[in-house]
Amino acid sequence: MYKSIIAIFVLCFSQNILAQKQVDTSRPNIIFIFADDMGIGDVSHTTGKAATPHLDRLAEEGIRFTDAHTSSSVCTPSRYSLLTGRYNWRTSLSKGVIHKPTTKPLLKKEETTVASLLKQAGYHTAIIGKWHLGIEWELLPDFKKEKWQIGGGWNIDYTKPAVTPTSNGFDYYFGIAASLDMPPYVYIENEKVTEIPSVMKDPNIRGRKGPAGPSFKADHCLQDFAEKSVTYINERANEKEPFFLYLPLSSPHTPIVPSEKWRGKSPLGDYGDFLMETDWVVGEVLKALDKQGLTENTIVLFSTDNGCSPAAKIPALQKKGHSPSGNLRGNKADIYEGGHRVPLIVRWPEVINTGTQTDRLTCLTDFIATCSEITDIKLEGTSGVDAVSFLSTLKDPTITNREAIVHHSINGSFAIRQGNWKLALCPGSGGWSTPRAGQTPEGSPNVQLFDLANDIAETTNLQDKYPEKVEELTQLLQSYVDKGRSTPGEIQKNDRDINIYSEDIAN
């Protein structure tokens, strides 16, 4: 009898301990690390020649998406789509990126973002890093530039608050307004600069001339972002509410400025060193999670905003055996795969089997729908109109639940992908690779059709052999435009009239 009582006690005690150890996977912490201008071949677990051990660790402990894409092959638009689940070309920004610090934000104040969605689920939300979606600073009245004040950004009233991520669902913001080659060069915390930009930027650092904060150093950014991120994780570890940290890095975008500690670490020169330092930031985040006991139920995602930039001197890297785009054609800005097919790694130990991969056709617009499904906070009919959750794929990599995705290049060219077929509605790259717009050989077809299953390098245009496929994909893309969405739901309005053929063709 006593043995039976003891057995029952031990069983109940064990079940109680197990219950205490169970984690609520309905509200995991979420960290999205977003590199800048980094190609699918830049990580060492694919073909990269610069060591990226922390990204390799993520891949070993999580799942790799081998067919993942940004919505655009350049920065501002791909960041908009990541946060909203809406294709960038539906906005007023028809091509290119935001350059001026006084530009009105691309995000509307009432527009749903991943951050505002997660706040509904009780999350604390933060962004540490590069924003590049428009700040809209106020201008100084009656400003007159002095001779030594070269470049843009001197006419801004930096004592006034800016329109920052805190207007779009983020509780905390620390970072830079845009790229490290776009003035002003200064940190912003929440809505105010941390110091007044009053000096010229370092002339030894590549980039547009303009004002900088006296203490701002471009080659310190990654270290500063890492330190701020670790501090944030440590602080949130003591709170009951879950957190969402969006960590958009400034690297390896130009200026390619690895810090002194990382110079000479890779066999690839400055670009390889910068890749390694970017990977180091990932490692600092993982280390902080481990230290705080948050690893098991924190989703860590890593991706990039587009492919590698030609500024990395790609031909020289290739001579050293490193191909930033892997076996893909093109690079940043292009409609070709190298412009927008990017690394996407997701680790969530409570849910994902280690060392897995999936060929699910995925767009980074899908992130917001995935967060919606995880937290059971429904997206309104006007939000996430181009997002399809990949939660089921995290649980079972064989699930590929996406019909098609739309690609967009720097000059506003469109492409649509369905299955193995890809139709580009332009005659060339739509970007910076040969043939550029206006430089295609005379008589070139106005569209390009590729079978990626047999021609991943996009070398053979099949548009003349499969005209019915061209027509089918064209109609599908046009339907996505006309409906204002590519997912089931009520028809929505785009922010502008859209021509699916590039302006270069139309003119």
Automatic annotation (TrEMBL):
* PROSITE patterns documented for this protein: SULFATASE_1, SULFATASE_2
The record's InterPro entries line, in alphabetical order, gives: Alkaline_phosphatase_core_sf, Sulfatase, Sulfatase_CS, Sulfatase_N
Q: Where is the Sulfatase N-terminal domain?
A: 28-376
Q: What are the entry keywords?
A: Calcium, Hydrolase, Metal-binding, Signal
UniProt keyword Cell membrane, yes or no = no
Q: Which SUPFAM superfamilies match?
A: Alkaline phosphatase-like (SSF53649)
Output the superkingdom of the source species.
Bacteria
Q: What start and end residues bound the annotated signal peptide?
A: 1-19
Q: Does the keyword Oxidoreductase apply?
A: no
Spell out the family assignment given in the record's similarity comment.
Answer: Belongs to the sulfatase family.
Q: What is this protein called?
A: Arylsulfatase
